[in-house]
Amino acid sequence: MKIPWRFTIGLLSGFMLAVSFFVGALYTQLGVPTHMSQWISDISQKKERLAARIPGPRLLVVGGSCALFGINAQVIQQQTGYLTVNMATHAGLHLEYILDRIEKTARPGDTILLVPEYEFYLNRSSFGWEIHDDYILARDPGYFRQMSLPDKIGMATRIPFKRLQTGWRNRRGTTDHTRPPSPPYSPYTPISPGIDCLDENGDEIFNTVAGQPPPSAAMQEPDVLLRDGFASKNTDGFAELTAFIQWARSHHVTVLAAFPSIVSQPIYDAPTARKALETITRFYTSHGVPVVGNPQEAMLPLDQFFDTRYHLIFSAALQRTEHLLPELQPYLTPAR
Fold it and tell me: Using one digit for the tens of pLDDT, what is the confidence trace for 135-176?
């Protein structure tokens, strides 16, 4: 049966019209702040200010919240004399975006300590898209404009209509997007007068034992990558890390890698987990990136974690960092 050409043209026109509408709707969201994106924006801006005011070579700690909560830049700086800033924010922003941001911050002579969550070695959807899309629309319109058309279409097709409504309400000023989160003293409290969740090296300081909530069931679930291994090594995560390592080499930036702290599980001693960890180590080695520490020493008891399987309490973060120092020290020579 021959399909009438008018039907085909009409179908394609309808599709293009729908795509244009949804992509156009995203443009109405650009630069409109949201409550969800506020704390990430606050800590990102402070970290970038801290890094910018250091004139010489710097050690920049990069990752999601596992590095924000798990590596203490102040200890590194005090023990090595090397100026250090914890640039880590939130894994929900996705690896590609986090690396893009650090490329804009890093300078020749800097050293980057990569501490990715295990999900970062998989595909981009491992952490979902909600935080990533919300943050880019609300806080980084420039990044959205440089995205490829397929990526914009992808965002348009997955963003909930409720999120579009939130942006439209905030644009009209009918919603207070700056209201503080609840509870008021969670680690995600935005930087505001009298309350600052970061120290002068960009480290999280609110993850104390005194504020430690009861452990959740989710904290005790095994990590998917370590439980199931790699279905394929051809993932977004490995591709993005490869591109970043190549960028760093061409811009005279040194890259180091470390494993994230995670709640210890018996299953992590199984062959599947060990093979996955060996694959990660071999990946960095094959690209000439030194690996600092080993994954087993980053697997800690449940009581050392704050509110997720990746978030250490402050005292545990200090100890974890101290354990990394002997291997980290040889790569850090303070400027004279």
Answer: 999 999 999 999 998 899 889 889 888 888 888 888 877 655
43 three-class SS: helix
Fold (CATH) for 36-127+183-330: Rossmann fold (3.40.50)
- State which amino acid sits at residue 139: R
Q: Where are the domains of the chain?
A: 36-127+183-330
SS (H, E, C) 228-285: HCCCCCCCHHHHHHHHHHHHHHHCCCEEEEECCCEECCHHHHCHHHHHHHHHHHHHHH
Q: Among all chains, which residue has been given the structure tokens 């590609």?
A: 96
Closest CA to 34 of 146, 160, 127, 165: 165
132 near 92, Cβ under 8 Å? yes
pLDDT averaged over every residue in the chain:
88
DSSP H stretches of helix in the chain: 5-27, 35-52, 65-70, 73-80, 95-105, 130-139, 141-146, 149-158, 161-172, 224-228, 236-250, 271-286, 314-328
Q: Around Cβ 242, how many Cβ atoms within 10 Å?
A: 13
**Residue carrying the six token digits 């804009």:** 104
Tell me the CB-side half-sphere exposure of residue 247, using CA atoms within 13 A: 17
Does the structure show a pLDDT above 70 at 2? no
What phi, psi does 236 have (nearest 5°)? -60, -40
Task: Report whether 320 contacts 79 (CB < 8 A).
Answer: no
Res 225: pLDDT: 92
Q: Give the per-residue pLDDT at 25.
A: 74
Given a cut of 80, is residue 66 above it in pLDDT?
yes
Q: How far is CA 93 from the centre of its chain?
A: 5
